[in-house]
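Dear colleague,

Following up on Tuesday's group meeting, I ran the structure prediction for the two-component complex that the binding team flagged. I've pasted the input sequences exactly as they went in, so you can double-check that nothing got truncated or mislabelled along the way. The structure tokens for the whole assembly follow below. Feel free to forward this to whoever is handling the docking comparison.

Inputs:
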Amino acid sequence: MKAGNVYLQDLSRGIINENPVFRLLLGMCPVLGVTAFFINGLGMGIAATAVLIASNVVISALKNYIPSQVRIPCFIVVIATFVTIIEMVLQAFQPDLYEALGVFVPLIVVNCVILGRAEAFASKKPLLRSLVDGIAVGIGFTLALGILALVREVFGQGTILGPDPDSAIQLFGAGFEPMGLFGQPAGAFIALGLLLGVVNIIFKKFNIK
Amino acid sequence: MERLLTIIFVYILVENFVLHRFFGICPFLGVSRKMETAIGMSMAVVFVMTMATLVTWLLYSFVLVPYNLEYLQIVTFILVIASLVQLVETTLRKISPTLYQGLGIFLPLITTNCAIMAVALLAVREEFTFVEAVVFGLAASIGFSLALVIMAGIRERLELAEIPDVLQGPAVTLITAGILSLAFLGFGGMFTL
């Protein structure tokens, strides 16, 4: 097998076959919590991806120096450091997004996707593959957040790119009555449940395992 | 006293941590299959969450703030929570090995239960006093347990139901959680802080 194939496999596994949200159901709290608007969902996805890539690379580079008995606390400290950095960056450059995401920004530190990848992949595999894995899983996570947020915003608000009225695009005419349910917490659960069903149908149709 | 009671009711019923604020979804979906494990998980969470709020609030107010170290908040809080979880794990293994077996992977995973980290962070963000913060931690964990136990009860019956092929497993659980959340929406506005 050529070396390039391994990376390609890692990439498709992270995005499709083992999509963290649709297949493994990891890191569900931000998935449900910040997806009332597309921009928030996308912002959350990108922030988590940045932390994931950075922590994967650092943990993979340090894997020979971390004693296996205390590896989990070590991973957590590495992740927490990057989350602190991302929090400060968001606060400085994207204050609106930072406000909208609220407590979910520091909560990236307890996102099981990131710790899961550190434990299952980065602590065992070489640096370059860990980098690719971080990018792949990050894209998979962002993709899932984006799709759910798009569904919820279109049905729940009738807009795209809200909540800021300057950038929000009204999709439907004045007679449109938004389905308030999708903006509510209950709608998040139901929308994600139905979306999982749709994903299952697609996977079955194309015979993806 | 009135404020404390309000905090209790708001965070158990109105702003339920699982069904309204979306904290702790992983254990909510993971251990709600059987009533027994749900109750075990609830007890572990009530203990860890209340203790975590207590310790992190004290650390934040008396160590981090006086020395201008607020930026270490995330690192400190997660380490406190991780050590508390370790404590509960060791204790449980000694006292009740069956429960320890039943909780399995989810006990160490309490560390990454965002509900616990969220309580610690929110107690600081909402500028609660010490007593309020501890009551808040207790109320939030009871709210979490309530949602978990109700869900376990529903899922035990759900096993006998005929579910469309593609919705089996997590999908139908999420939809059920959505309906449950809809029911809790009815409490909205009953109490406000």
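The interface with chain A takes residues 19-26, 29, 71-75, 78-79, 82, 108-109, 111-114, 116-118, 121-122, 125, 164, 166-167, 170-175, 177-179, 181-182, 185 of chain B (CB under 8 Å).

Cheers,
M.
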